[in-house]
Amino acid sequence: MVRIFGILAGIGFVIVLLWSLLWGAIAFIQEPPQPTAEHEFHKHPRDAQLPSAGLLGKYDNQQLQRGFQVYKEVCAACHGLKYVAFRDLEALGYSEPEVKAIADQWPIESPSVNPETGEAATRKNIPADHFPSPYPNEVAARAANNNALPPDLSLITKARHDGANYVYSLLTGYREPEAELLRKFPDSKPGEGLHHNPYFANLNIAMPAPIVSEGQVSYLDGTRPTVDQMSKDVAAFLAWTAEPKLQQRKAAGLGAVLFILAFCFLAYGAYRNVWRDKAH
Question: What pLDDT score does 37 carry?
Fold first, then answer.
């Protein structure tokens, strides 16, 4: 009897499921989803063609140093790098004295406590410190940016689809809304404090274009600082902050693949040797 009730209950569940599926399909056919501005006009990131891309790609330290310079002079006023320490910059080719100077001269000091009064204070950065946030807390960050919260950039290329290509495309993607977009979706016009960018998820972003003209940053190595070049360099730098061990990981992966191939060859040779006189 229990088995019969179980079978009947199962049949009932299947009928309900099929009924729901059928009515869902009918509703979808009768009232299909309405097109949205984001679906029709959002653009996929362009290929920045960074040296680190691809199976055998690796970082270009000169480009990373240029990217750090762009971050320092353009991005650091609003965005932090809380998972990156000053001493990590030695991996980019900076010497220990240079790293100490960068930390000491960084315009935002690290939070501390006055040992005499116990009150909150700040102190000069040292190489062991992580890059300090430009704002003391989220409330202050929103208050300074029209209630928009500037994200920390340490892992931004991991947090966004197509990582470095997204950052590069976003920085070079600011423009006026297309006439067709405004005709089909009048409500998509950027509101007060917003800026149109087809590479951003909902097309309108609170951050104004940070890189607006050639020569905004004067590169120390003499590279021509075009908007495209500066955007590409800072995208490469942020790819490094998110994955500083990229080259070691790729080398380990390649070594593992070669080992597996060699092992398979040896295993096949052993198989042929063991079973060479056996009919199988």
Answer: 85
Q: Are residues 215 and 176 in the same domain?
A: yes
Is the pLDDT score of 13 beyond 90? no
Strand bridging mode 195-196 / 120-123: unpaired
Number of domains in the chain: 2
Q: Residue 279 sits in which domain range? A: 246-280
Its pTM stands at 0.84
CATH of the domain at 70: 1.10.760.10
Q: State how far the Cα of 47 lies from the Cα of 186, in Å rounded to an integer.
A: 30
Tell me the per-residue pLDDT of 254-277, one tens digit each, with 9 for 90 and over. 899 999 999 999 998 888 888 777
Say whether both 267 and 171 belong to one domain.
Answer: no
Residue indicated by tokens 């500037």: 150
Long-range CB pairs of 209-215 (<8 Å, 24+ gap) are 209/171, 209/174, 210/74, 210/75, 210/171, 211/70, 211/74, 211/171, 211/172
Q: Are residues 274 and 219 in the same domain?
A: no
Q: Does pLDDT of 25 surpass 80?
A: no
pLDDT of 236 above 90:
yes
